[in-house]
Amino acid sequence: MLSPHDPLLSSSASSLAALVRGKQISPVELVDAFIARIEAENPALNAVVVDRFERARGEASAAEALLMGAHAGEPLPPMLGVPCTVKECIAVEGMPNTAGVHARKGLLAPRDADVVRRMRDAGAIVVGLTNMPEGGLWLETNNRVYGRTNNPWDPARIPGGSSGGEGAILAVDASPFGIGADIGGSIRIPAAFCGVFGHKPTGGLVSNEGYWPSVPGALDIFLCTGPMTRRAEDLWPLLGSMAQRPLEGRPEAVDLREVTVYPLETGAARVREDQRRAVRRAARALEARGARIEALRTRGFERALEIWSAMMEEEAGALSYAEVLGNGRAISLPRELLRCSRPDAPHTLQALVVAAAEAILKWVPAPLATWSRAGKWLREELEAELGPRGVLLHPPYTRTAPRHFEPLLTPFDFVCTAIFNVLGFPVTEVPAGRDAAGLPLGVQVAARRGADALTIAIAGALEADLGGFVRARPSRSAPFRTTPPRR
Fold first, then answer.
1. Among 12, 186, 241, 309, which one carries the catalytic annotation?
2. Residue of 443 and 217 predicted with greater confidence
3. Domains of the chain with bracketed CATH
4. Annotated catalytic, 241?
5. Which of 26, 162, 175, 241 is catalytic?
């Protein structure tokens, strides 16, 4: 019987899959062991908010039957029997699909999202759904359906968002991999705050079908569904299973002696020195492996907020966050702000502040067309300068994980990640050690559209040089759940 404390469970998802295919681990034992880990670690985090344990056990038994009945040499699904977790706004058939929105409480997904179907076809088994902010448009993972999620390194701090539950449960080694989504940093910020890997794919590479709220027009390119992992080696095979079209290149074909690295320590936000040092340390590590270091000539990152806001607004059309919070019917902001401190209030303060800011900005004249053109120019200039073998290193946030509510004081710091969404670039977030307080540091590795293999190859090199994933061990001194997990 596989123990939930077995160090083998800390192996990569790819390694676990190989052990299953080699009949060295039973899918049933593997799923049971990770369920036990979730049950042990989750009470301090509130990361997995909907468990799927019994269905997962049934699917593990089916996977075991398939494995035992396979003939020698018969091909098997690449992730057969490997458990995973999924961000709650990504549909899993028969499971809650609220996106943390109170007005959607009780709604169940009628079918799997495209990316979930693809991962199931690859043999993966969903054991639970993870928490997120209301409607997915903020970096504090908190809502009135499931409650608040805490950072696994320090429960007084946030795990990031909007894929905060994924980052938190991966950080305590209780899930081999997760499926997140990112429209302004929602994979990369939690990955950075929790000390795991996250990959925002090239825009449009992975289907967003089955994500709620659905996004119109080019927002479907800006929003990217992608993998979150504990090991860099899992990113590429998982991306290959998730993608709706063939991937370009291969990480193992990247020769670092042909790579040019452009470190950019700061942009539109004031980045703290420890984050800037992480970028410099990553650049030096790549230089030691033969990469060239050059200063970025292209200008425009200092106006990242204006560019991101304009390109998002230009494509959003009638999509309103107030309507997202009301599940299609705009909430009354004055009324909800007056009652948000009540225990039975349907919305968090953070969500209402974001909705109010959106409403105010709609009345402020803004040269959307000018800034949108500037964003398209920035994309063209960057792609020309980076070329097929250039990567940009950039901090994922201005600092390590802030305390709960603190991001309300610096609401625009997410531009460190958001600019890459409207550019459509692939970006891999890589753990880069820890700061003086012991909190995880991270570095973003970005490249031109289609160069996902390049950023993932760089992530593998930096994993070896900067230390990679280290398991967090949260304090269990107090319970943090506000609602029980849904089944």
1. 186
2. 443
3. 7-306+368-466 (3.90.1300.10)
4. no
5. 162
- The answer to whether the beta carbons of residues 139 and 161 sit under 8 Å apart is yes
**296/386 Cα distance (integer angstroms):** 9
From the list 264, 341, 350, 250, the residue with the least C-alpha distance to 299 is 264
Residues 6+ apart with CB under 8 A from 171: 152, 153, 159, 194, 195, 196, 471, 472
Tell me the per-residue pLDDT of 337-371, one tens digit each, with 9 for 90 and over: 999 999 999 999 999 999 998 888 777 666 888 99
Task: Determine whether 369 is exposed, middle or buried from the number of CB atoms within 10 Å of its CB (0-12, 13-18, 19+).
Answer: exposed
Q: What is the mean pLDDT of the chain?
A: 94
CB atoms near residue 207 (< 10 Å): 18
The C-alpha angle with vertex 476 and arms to 190 and 50, in degrees rounded to 5, equals 55
Q: Could you say which of 87, 175, 207, 241 is catalytic?
A: 87
- Omega within 30 of 0 (cis) for the link into 341: no
* pLDDT over 90 (residue 473): no
Residues in contact with 303: Cβ distance below 8 Å, sequence separation at least 6, in sequence order: 268, 371, 374
Evaluate if residue 249 carries a pLDDT over 60. Answer: yes
Active site residue 163: no
Active site annotation includes 162: yes
Q: For 149-165, how does the pLDDT look when each residue is reduced to its tens digit (9 = 90+)?
A: 999 999 999 999 999 99
Mind spelling out the 3-state secondary structure of 39-67?
A: HHHHHHCCCEEEECHHHHHHHHHHHHHHH
